Amino acid sequence: MMANFKKVGVAAAVAAALGASGAAYAVQQGTPGDALLIPYVVTAGAGKLNTMISVVAASPNSVSVSQFNTLSGTKTTESCNGRLHWFFFDKESNEVADNTLPVTCNDWVGIDFGSIVEDPTRPIPSALNVPGYMVITDNAAGDAAGSGMILYGAAYQIRGNWATQAYIPVVPLVDSADGSLGDEVDHVGAFVTNVNPVKAGMALASGAGQRALFSLRYYLKADAPSGDTEFVLWFPDNSDARTNQNILVYDADERAISATTNVPYELNVVGVGVGAKEGRLITATIKDGLAETGFVLFGVADGVGPTDAPTSRAGVAFSLIGVNGSGTDQTQTELAHERGIQ
């Protein structure tokens, strides 16, 4: 349950195995997967900060399976009965905890991460105040077997005592047998060790000389309605190439100021604002060049393959924008604006 897998130094080899099947396109929402990636999961305890996850295991009788490129293998009314296996990883992709839940065809399963972590009978204190991500798949999937399930997901970050609920994008994954064409989930025994959402994620640099362009909105107005912003960036690997990452910080009048930030981890939570501070829940900051509102343009050159043998990679990025119009901060979610690969 507490197995660790740190991908610094092995990202190229693993990503090559998972990403050799084709190019990434754009983030998909609302489509099913063999497995699911929830790119940002965190809890600080009940009534403080929590993540709620919703999973539906659909029957193949009610899904046109062949129409979705994030579903693989044979789906039957038997294979959608079984157990879901969830894995929680920290920002560097070290596994912190995992467990299974029973599921049946057309079942809905709710995962209250805070309740799991603070369960008085079997608490998981190592997961408290730890920003991370979660992978959910068929417990029957493994090195030699793919997922038999059709999974739909949604997730929400709850701040305070249900003071605000922010949508967290859930990305579908292909989980076929390890090494098979198109597989996006790597297993080692009973554990998941890597995911790379090529078909349903945001396209990233594939090889040397490429860079992925995307922008994230911010809102920091000081007077009513005041604002605050965090950026969430999930990558399929840890990479020092994203340390001192160059960015362009735009205001609302097309004026840009160059700056830098650090996003070397698989999961990065960036505080945006002059007063932003790194801490247990914030992995980096952006302070320079900010106006009341605008966007930050990233050009990330972290490809893991040579120019003549690129490796497909994909991730997901979004803004969590708080707007305080009546004394209560309401947090909204805005996906990154994908601008393609150069």
Key structural traits:
single chain; 342 residues; mainly beta; Hypothetical Protein Tm1070, Chain: A; 2 domains; 6-stranded mixed sheet; 5-stranded antiparallel sheet; 2 helices; 22 strands; 42% strand
Structural summary, described in words:
It is a single chain. It is built from two helices and 22 strands. The protein is mainly β and 342 residues long. The chain folds into two domains: 177 residues, Sandwich (Hypothetical Protein Tm1070, Chain: A); 130 residues, no CATH class. The strands form five sheets. Strands 12, 14, 17, 18, 20 and 21 form a six-stranded mixed sheet that branches. Strand 7 and strand 8 form a beta hairpin. 47% of the residues are buried. The N terminus is likely disordered.
State the distance separating the first and last CA atoms: 41 Å
Percent strand equals 35-45%
- The CATH superfamily of the largest domain turns out to be TM1070-like
- Find the CATH topology of the largest domain: Hypothetical Protein Tm1070, Chain: A
- Give the class-level CATH name of the largest domain: Mainly Beta
Order of SSEs, N→C? HEEEEEHEEEEEEEEEEEEEEEEE
The Cα radius of gyration reads 19 Å
Please state the overall shape, judged from the principal axes of the Cα atoms.
globular
Please count the helical segments: 2
Poorly predicted ranges: 1-21
- Tell me the domain tally: 2
Mind telling me which CATH architecture of the largest domain this is? Sandwich
Main sheet?
A: 6 strands, mixed
Count of DSSP strands:
22
- Overall helicity: under 10%
Rounded mean pLDDT is 91
Helix/strand class: mainly beta
